[in-house]
Write a structure and sequence with these properties.
Blueprint (H helix, E strand, L loop, with lengths): L2 H13 L8 E2 L3 H4 L34 H4 L11 E10 L6 E13 L7 E7 L3 E4 L3 E6 L8 E10 L2 E10 L7 H6 L3 E9 L3 E4 L10 H9 L7 E4 L2 E6 L6 E7 L3 E4 L2 E2 L7 H6 L4 H5 L3 H24 L9 H27 L1 H20 L8 H15 L8 E6 L6 H19 L11 E5 L2 H23 L17 E4 L9 H7 L22 E3 L8 E3 L14 E2 L2 H7 L3 E5 L26 E4 L7 H18 L7 E6 L5 H9 L2 E5 L13 E2 L6 E7 L5 H18 L7 H4 L1 E5 L2 H12 L1 H13 L9 E4 L5 H11 L11 E4 L14 E5 L5 H8 L9 E7 L4 H8 L1 H5 L16 H19 L11 H21 L6 H15 L3 E3 L8 E5 H9 L8 E3 L20 H5 L1
Length: 1027
């Protein structure tokens, strides 16, 4: 038995029971066991047990779902007295189908001699054969020994057979004493349904209709996934059939399980020979001649082509209704393969591009060698480079207007793929200009949505950029003398002022204060891993990063990393890494113009948008609006930037990309004919995969359930596993949908969980686990604390300081890559399936067998539905990813920030307008041309949203008429401003003061919609109406 299975078995014993068939327990059994229980009918949860997890106050995040608002009061709820399964069945002849039901449970009686102890009575009924004729029937179960216990059967006919629901009902009504209720309660309830001879269990009809191209694609990819049963109160499970049957039986499950099969990034068998031959090794590609490059990379294309041929051969197995979709998939595969082959041809014909490719491979190999290994590209990584490099490096390429979207499961190596593209861009700019210096300035902008993700990716990007710089300096030899210029390849971090200092003075003043923004973001040398020194003698000096290790390839000159905004603007780093929110600053901060290279030989030519699925809803809408300004500014030289994105979870990607970036979309790798195999990504059943198990709060409060499950998992990690097996499951990563719930859980872990651990230990006769390291990973932590926390999470159980529990919100969903983490508890279904997939992918990475425990709230319909159909939707998680939306030119979005787009393009593209908002006839004419560009983009994105041109011209006319003296309202200044902070304007409105004429302008792209609290009442009183 694996360690993961042992932990699941321990959980079942602790939460369902029994420890032994004839056990005796030292407390009332409903206090000992959590679930698998059917209480007597109409038994309310007492109000005193309404233990809410959320704590008052929270953090004021208007977007988070409150436990208080989404869960009915416990006083209105009943403990479950029924559990059932719905399934489908058919018979071979005309007779009605028949099934055999096997029922088991346990009852507890007061001990005959010892007070406060309870004895278990095991109940296993004889199999019951039931004819599934349409209608409803009750079958008494007198053998259980409790009056009113019965089996309810309901049957409906449908085209392929019958749909049946069989429910075990505890209809007893004992006197309302605690002891009588315990005696009349069924524990460890279970039943199994098998088809009788001449009948068979079949697939339930699909409830998901295909309404768009994505639905049709998913219907093809997941056509082999089936739902055979769904639970009611409990969940349902089934096993693969034998002797030609689809399945043998369906059964109740109180801890349902599902496995997300691991994906091998090594791709299909067609690529295996390339790996063995060394053709995919970065070191090999870095040293190859042009002809050798063509040979290695052509072989990659040939292997993908061979896989494509296999797919075409499998078309005969596709059902007729799905054939058009299958052919569309194959057409897209052929298109992608064609682009890859043209990329190889371009390398053969373009010496600068081939040299940039070799140098990029040398840089990627160098940074991997610094980390103690060697880089062998995964087939999809090299395939993506071949797909995207030509349109990235050639501004006239027809695919320049297409976003290449790298769509690959979490943990597969997406970051390495596009860092290779960044390195290629950096070298190519220095090789193709009239002078190497023409390629100076920002070449690539990489954007993220979350601070934690940005921090971790900054560390990874620093290694790549420093490797490029070591090649430029010659401390890492490329084997030839190249003119790469005198300007270092460099990296800039451009994020919010809460994370990094906005100015040198702030950086100087904050030195040594871990609670304030620090320049020290990269703490270890990417080459030698020694501690870095941050030098800033005076508050007007730039912050210089140094490695002082003798012999280090990066020690003879400053590390080219900039984390203070003022230094970033001055240095114009090769790669700019920032959050999407920071781009709101292009409206108010004229220094940001330096980053966009307006008027220089080369503007930034590549934008990388990681975790694309996160840019949706209100954030996506405002980001798409600001992106209008960014794109127009970066296209000033007539060469729009190439945009590359990545995600593991998204639906209707084409619509979202068009709304955000005004680009077409090319997904890589494109899907094949099955979800299990896209050529470059293949499910591998030999790998452990990630196991999901579900638990319900039915009959319990969320707080009681959380502490019971948490205690059992931590108890099991110590006592159910050997010392060699413990490490992956020692640290419990607990995910919460809101800071309010997390705050309640923090108290719970410190008090109730420790008490339950002691009870479990006493029952098992072992020493209790002591919790000493309870941590939090949320937005309430400073940047320095987050970095330290990531380091602490890497500490193994056999080392001092290993973390017992870390409580996290959605901050953990992206960017946390700690290989040792194997255990996660998800408290409540996240709002989107994409969030669920991303969050749970934090555990079980690499060779660790991941275990995710989903704690689903029975009081919330969506949680309950997911629990009852747990096996179904975990067999095809990606099919249930919801579509996201972004509507940048909707009227409310235009009200909020359309003027900001106008101001940004005017300031950045009309030189005399940068510092002061004063008009001339020439600048007005130019502004009207820029308005035309904005209007044209709005028409391409959403032709139904009219009025954009009129609104922009009204704004321009108002600006000219008002004749403001400064752009941004300054405290204490009497100068008339054009704009003011939207937050300040909202504060003035809230206090009844006039906003003034200055346009309210967002400082951030978040919190764009104010919350509107409401109260639902049966009727309005007179004073409610007047108010």
């Amino acid at each position: 038995m694996s360690a993961r299975d042992a932990l699941i078995d321990r959980l079942a014993v602790d939460l369902i029971g029994p420890l032994a068939p004839d056990e005796t327990v030292d407390a009332k059994p409903s206090d000992v066991y959590l679930t698998g229980i059917l209480w007597p009918q109409n038994l309310a949860i007492p109000p005193e047990q309404d233990d809410r997890l959320a704590v008052a106050g929270g953090d004021g995040d208007t977007n988070e779902e409150s436990d208080e608002s989404s869960q009915p009061p416990a006083a209105q709820m009943r403990r479950p007295s029924t559990a059932g399964i719905s399934f489908a069945c058919t018979s071979a002849g005309e007779a009605a189908p028949r099934v055999i039901v096997e029922i088991g449970c346990g009852r507890y009686q007061p001990h005959s001699e010892e007070k406060d102890r309870w004895e278990r009575v095991d109940i296993a009924l004889s199999p019951i054969e039931i004819e599934l004729s349409p209608g409803s029937d009750d079958i008494p179960l007198a053998a259980v020994g409790i009056a009113g216990v019965r089996l309810n059967v309901r049957v409906l006919s449908f085209d392929a057979g019958v749909l049946a629901t069989i429910t075990l009902v505890n209809g007893s009504r004992p006197e309302r004493s605690r002891e009588a209720i315990e005696v009349a309660t069924l524990f460890q309830t279970r039943f199994t349904i098998r088809a009788a001879e001449g009948s068979r269990l079949i697939t339930r009809p699909s409830r998901k209709a295909a309404i768009d191209a994505d639905d049709r694609s998913n219907a093809l990819l997941f056509r082999r996934s089936r739902e055979y049963a769904t639970g009611h109160t409990c969940s349902a499970e089934w096993d693969a059939g034998t002797e030609g049957r689809e399945i043998d039986a369906v059964r109740t499950a109180w801890i349902p399980q599902g496995t997300a099969t691991a994906v091998s990034p090594d791709g299909s068998r067609h690529f295996a020979s390339l790996t063995r031959s060394g053709s995919l090794a970065a070191a090999t590609l870095a040293q190859s001649t042009d002809d050798e490059l063509v040979g290695h990379l052509g072989a990659l294309c040939d292997a993908y082509g061979a896989w494509q041929d296999d797919q075409r051969a499998n078309l005969e197995d596709i059902p007729a209704p799905l054939m058009d979709t299958a052919n569309a998939h194959l057409d897209e595969i052929a298109h992608v393969l064609g682009r890859m082959r043209r990329g190889v041809d371009r390398l053969a014909a373009d010496g600068a591009m081939a040299e940039a490719f070799r140098l990029a491979n040398l840089a990627m190999e160098t940074q991997r060698v610094w980390g103690g290994s060697s880089l062998v590209w995964r087939p999809f990584q090299l395939g993506f480079l071949l797909l995207s490099m030509e349109s990235t490096l050639d501004p006239q390429h027809p695919d320049r207007g297409v976003m290449d979207l790298l769509w690959f499961p979490t943990g597969g190596g997406k970051t390495e793929a596009y860092l290779g593209l960044v390195a290629m861009v950096a070298f190519h700019r220095r090789l193709v200009g009239a002078r190497p210096e023409d390629g100076d300035g920002v070449a690539c902008i990489m954007r993220y949505t979350l601070r934690l993700l940005t921090t971790q990716q900054f560390i990874r990007a620093a290694a790549t950029i420093c490797a490029c710089e070591a090649i430029r300096r010659g401390t890492v030899s490329s084997g030839q003398k190249l003119a790469l210029g005198k300007t270092p390849f460099s990296l800039g971090l451009w994020v919010g002022g809460d994370a990094t200092p906005n100015s040198r003075k702030i950086a100087f003043d904050n030195k040594g204060d871990a609670f304030k923004p620090q320049a020290r973001q990269l703490t270890k040398c990417p080459c030698c891993n020694a501690d870095l020194d941050y030098v800033q003698p005076r508050d007007t000096d730039p912050v210089v990063v140094e490695c002082r290790t003798a012999g280090c390839a990066l020690s003879k000159a400053p590390i080219p990393v900039f984390t203070v905004d003022e230094d970033v603007y001055q240095q114009r780093p090769t790669m700019l890494l920032g959050t999407v929110d920071k781009f709101a600053q292009i409206v108010r901060n004229p220094a940001s113009r330096a980053l966009f290279g307006v008027g220089t030989p080369m503007q930034p030519q590549l934008i990388l948008q990681d975790e694309l699925h996160l840019i949706a809803g209100p954030l996506g809408t405002l980001t798409g609006l600001y992106e209008t300004a960014v794109d127009i500014i970066l296209s000033d030289n007539g060469r729009p930037p190439k945009i590359v994105g990545s995600t593991a979870t998204i639906r209707r990607a084409g619509e979202q990309v068009r709304a955000l970036f005004d680009r077409g979309t090319c997904q890589f790798p494109p899907p094949g004919l099955d979800a299990e195999d896209s050529g470059f990504a293949v499910q591998d059943s030999a790998l452990a995969g990630r196991r999901y198990i579900g638990l319900t709060t039915a009959g319990r409060s969320a707080k009681f359930t959380l502490q019971a499950v948490s205690a059992s998992l931590m108890h099991g990690a110590l006592h159910a596993l050997s010392p060699e097996e413990r490490d992956p499951y020692w640290t419990l990563l607990a995910y919460f949908n809101s800071l309010r719930e997390l705050g309640g859980a923090l108290v719970l872990m410190q008090d109730d969980v420790s008490d339950t651990l002691a009870l479990l230990a006493t029952r098992a006769g072992v020493a209790p686990r002591q919790l000493s390291e309870i941590e939090e990973l949320t937005s309430r932590r400073t940047q320095a604390e987050i970095r330290d926390m990531l380091d602490k999470l890497a500490v193994r159980v056999d080392q001092p300081g290993a973390v017992d529990v870390v409580l996290a919100t959605n901050m953990v969903s992206v960017g946390v890559d700690i290989p040792r983490l194997g255990l996660m508890l998800v408290n409540g279904q996240p709002k989107t399936m994409a969030e669920y997939i991303q969050a749970t992918s934090r555990v079980g990475r690499g060779k660790v067998e991941g275990l995710v425990v989903a704690l689903l709230n029975n009081a919330k319909p969506r949680d309950r539905s997911h629990y009852e159909t747990f096996s179904t939707w975990h067999s095809m998680l990606y099919r249930f990813v919801e579509a996201t939306s972004a509507t940048p030119f909707a009227s409310r979005a235009r009200d909020r920030a359309l003027h900001a787009v106008l101001v940004a393009v005017v300031r950045h593209l009309i030189p005399e307008m940068l510092e002061a908002p004063t008009w001339s006839d020439g600048s007005i004419a130019r502004a009207r041309q820029l308005i035309d560009l904005i209007v044209a983009r709005a028409g391409r994105i959403d032709a139904d949203e009219g009025g954009v041109r009129d609104e922009l011209h009204r704004r321009l006319d108002t600006w000219i008429r008002r004749a403001p003296e400064i752009y941004w309202k300054k405290k204490g200044s009497r100068a008339m401003p054009l704009m003011q902070s939207a937050e300040e304007a909202a504060a003035r409105r809230a206090t009844g003061r006039a906003e003034g004429h200055a346009w309210a302008t967002p400082n951030s792209m978040r919190g764009v919609e104010p919350a509107t609290p409401y109260r639902l009442v049966p009727g309005l009183r007179n004073n409610d109406v007047t108010q």
